[in-house]
Amino acid sequence: MAKILNWHLVRSSLRKKRLSIFTPHDLTRIFGVSSVAAGFFVFRNAKKGLLVRLKKAPQGSLYCLADDIPNHYWIANRIYEPSYISFDAALSFHDIIPEAVYAITSATTKATREFAVNNVSFIFHRIKQSVYTGYKPQKYLGNTILMASPEKAMADVLYFVALRKRQFTYERLNLHKLRKSRLCEFAGLYNQPSIFVLIKQIYADFRRPSRIY
Fold first, then answer.
1. What is the mean pLDDT of residues 99-127?
2. Contact residues for 9 (Cβ-Cβ < 8 A; gap 6+)
3. pTM of this prediction?
4. What are phi and psi of 151, to 5 degrees?
5. Left (φ > 0), alpha (ψ -120 to 50) or beta: where does 119 sit?
6. Alpha helix (H) ranges present in 58-192?
7. CATH class (in words) of the domain with range 7-65
8. What pLDDT, on a 0 to 100 scale, did the predictor assign at position 1?
């Protein structure tokens, strides 16, 4: 008889291993069951509402426990790889901007994509491989996430502003948490002179209630 997975055993084991995001293949490897058994287990328990499918993929869909959903940054890192948290989400994380963000924004070398997981938007903006830098792993709520530095997150934003793919609408910036020299280093990687014009404007008069960038 084929081995069948027990919900309580799986739930307990995943928590002990701190495997907050997993694939059916992980269940096959950990519990020694067939891929069919693992697939049936996640299908059945997702339908019951005990599991949440974070991403559907031919190579292996991603799941988590419905009563133990990981933090949004960790989900973002996992559902589209390679990627790191940047843009507005990173600026908010580093307290550079006071505004709340309603989407988790990341940089990736793959095609631009957007996903919705549990009513949360995860947006991935494509950047060139040559500027895919300026991030580092750091611990956050029990997971190691890839987060852009404040300066790289700002440079990523300003690059898209320079390309007129978005606007820069923040009324207040905590520039004390930005190293201008480091920001300029990252801006230089983009080989886009207009970014430096934006940086100069921000530092010259960033408190004005209305700006045109």
1. 95
2. 31
3. 0.91
4. -70, -40
5. left
6. 72-79, 87-93, 150-162, 180-189
7. mainly alpha
8. 42
